[in-house]
Amino acid sequence: MFLRKTRPLALILIVVLVMMLGVTGCGTSNLQTQATATPTPNETNAVANSSSANNTPTPNSTTAQATPVTLYFPTPDASGLVAVEKTVNVSNGEVIKAMFNEFNNPPTGLERVLPKGTELLDASIKDGVATLNLSKEFKSNFEGGGTGEQMILYSIVNSLTTLPNVQSVQFLLNGEKTIAILGEMDTSGPLKRDESLITKQ
């Protein structure tokens, strides 16, 4: 009689224990999944450091580098252009800007290139064409005639086409193309190098 009463009770206890073990196992499984999905602080820092490293500019992009260039300056009588070797400090790869800074520092016996007050507003190179956006002073302060115009434009063109990725130069005045930026020569399209203007001093 006592055995018959305890058997159903024992079965109930076994079922309850099995159910409790099942619930505990599921909870452990969920905790393990969450632990695997959540990165540790060290992993988070590693990812952050990696992103920062990728976004940090390289030293070469900000450090000025001494770069040899060839610039052409007009002779005093505007009979031709003389090649002058110079070393310029180039920052952020802006070699055209560095060259422009030297156009008004001619060697003794040669003429400055740019009209007074001329500023290089922007410069870019694409498909072999260097596009120069010059300030209004490039035109308004120009004092020469046709020969002086030729000397100025080709001092710039012949200088920039010494760069390996430049074959021609497009002039803009305050961001706009003009048919004749200095009055006579056609500057509606890019100008190519003119070797015939190069002379020896």
TrEMBL record:
Residues annotated as domain GerMN: 96-182
Region (Disordered): 34-67
Species of origin: Desulfitobacterium metallireducens DSM 15288
Entry-linked SMART domains: Germane
Pfam annotation, one family: Germane
Taxon lineage: Bacteria, Bacillati, Bacillota, Clostridia, Eubacteriales
Protein name: Sporulation/spore germination protein
